[in-house]
């Protein structure tokens, strides 16, 4: 599956002309998504880059699970980071997964949308210190929704990353992705893959397909 150029940060490893493609549909507030991310990002990815360079590209797709409101807001924040600096998308995604409990329903239930945006922007600033282009002001500007006083003034047009969010929601629906995490190898869903796989299990899976 191709990756539009504006979402280049979602290719977290490899190049577009790699022989094979491994895709992950992940939700930042899904514990199982965090589990598979941690294994793949910290162990599988370095192994692939060292032992099989140029063979596999890894692509992440945002899979929004709307029964958790923060699923939308965390994805928006990641898309805002990518819009400013695509090279920081993977590292910010890693920070979101590492801190995902801070966005669980029971923690954010009394926080406003704007308050959560500020928390997410602060996480980016504390995590992405090497990127001078990412500032709290720039992120909040992309996430900002201007409040209005009357119903007649309301347009429901979202913020500057709403259309990016729509792309991934439409993509998941089109491809019949219903759960997170969902993993595809060369465009086909691999239901055999578990979020609990060890590095050795990942190695066995990949080696039989290269």
Automatic annotation (TrEMBL):
Classification via CDD domains:
DsbA_family
Q: Where's the Thioredoxin-like fold domain?
A: 11-119
Q: Which domain of life is it from?
A: Eukaryota
Cited InterPro entries = Thioredoxin-like_fold, Thioredoxin-like_sf
What is this protein called in UniProt?
Thioredoxin-like fold domain-containing protein
The organism named in the record is: Lobosporangium transversale
């Amino acid at each position: 599956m191709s990756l539009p150029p504006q979402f280049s940060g979602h290719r977290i490893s490899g190049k577009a002309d790699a022989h094979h493609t491994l895709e992950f549909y992940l939700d930042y507030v899904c514990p199982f998504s965090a589990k598979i991310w941690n294994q793949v990002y910290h162990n599988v990815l370095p192994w692939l880059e060292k032992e099989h360079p140029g063979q596999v590209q890894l692509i992440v797709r945002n899979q929004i699970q709307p029964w958790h409101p923060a699923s939308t807001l965390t994805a928006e924040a990641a898309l805002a980071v990518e819009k400013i600096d695509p090279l920081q998308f993977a590292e910010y995604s890693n920070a979101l997964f590492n801190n995902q409990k801070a966005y669980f329903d029971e923690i954010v239930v009394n926080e406003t949308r704007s308050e959560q945006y500020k928390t997410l922007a602060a996480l980016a600033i504390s995590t992405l210190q090497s990127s001078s282009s990412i500032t709290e002001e720039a992120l909040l500007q992309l996430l900002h929704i201007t409040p209005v006083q009357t119903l007649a003034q309301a347009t429901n047009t979202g913020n500057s990353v709403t259309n990016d969010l729509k792309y991934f929601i439409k993509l998941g629906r089109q491809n019949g992705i219903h759960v997170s995490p969902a993993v595809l190898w060369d465009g086909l869903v691999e239901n055999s893959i578990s979020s609990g796989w060890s590095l050795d299990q990942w190695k066995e899976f990949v080696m039989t397909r290269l």
